[in-house]
Amino acid sequence: MDEHVPDARHYDATYLKNGRPFSLAAQLTAISEVAPSRVLEVGVGTGICVHALRQIGIPVTTLDVQPELRPDIVGDVRAIPAETGAFDVSSCCQVLEHLPFGDFGTAARELARVTRRRLVLSLPDITRSVDLTVTLPLLGMRTLSCSLPVREPSDAWKSERLRTMGHYWEIGACGVRAATVGRLLREAGFARVRSFRVREIPWHRFFVAEAA
After folding, report:
1. pLDDT tens digits, one per residue of 24-50
2. 22: burial class by Cβ within 10 Å (0-12, 13-18, 19+)?
3. Which residues partner with 90 through β-bridges?
4. What span, in angstroms and rounded, lies between the C-alpha atoms of 59 and 38?
5. Domains annotated on the chain, with CATH
6. Rg of the chain over all Cα atoms, to the nearest angstrom
7. Distance from C-alpha of 54 to C-alpha of 208, rounded to nearest angstrom
8. Please, where are the H alpha helices in 33-177?
9. Is the entire prediction scored with pTM above 0.70?
10. What digits encode the pLDDT tens for the residues 176-212?
């Protein structure tokens, strides 16, 4: 097991600060809007998303490499022990940055293999987020959003990020761009990919990938 994969200590009382509940809400919305009959959750995390889905009658199977988090299946996203097309929706949020970026394609292909309809993926994004929202008479709320690049972080910054957060890479660092992630998802077998950032926590970028 990679030493940088989070264990139970990672999900302490501070984990839900700084807008994370809004990210969970985005995750739940993207999963539930296709009314799945079976969901795979990669990374147990706090368990909040799994609990919420089960409360509304959606069966969820959890997968995690950490046995102490008590997943339904102890396994690696790079070699998911499940049949092809076993799940309507697979969710993998704030997980893949804990693996070297060179493993992203392998993980994406495995997620595409087991997913029949949709993948919900979120990743950390350190690029600058610009978000303008206005409410207009008759037209209602209108939003303009864009991301601006940042200078490549120093090696010292990257080392500290890996040491304290277990992040090998993030969008905007280590040469990784949002467009790169979208391309790799399509190469893995997904037909359409859309991306958005959560306004209340723009550090979280979502990719919603539809199966071919």
Report:
1. 999 999 999 999 999 999 999 889 999
2. middle
3. 40, 119
4. 5
5. 8-211 (3.40.50.150)
6. 17
7. 21
8. 48-55, 104-114, 155-165
9. yes
10. 999 999 999 999 999 999 999 999 999 999 999 999 8
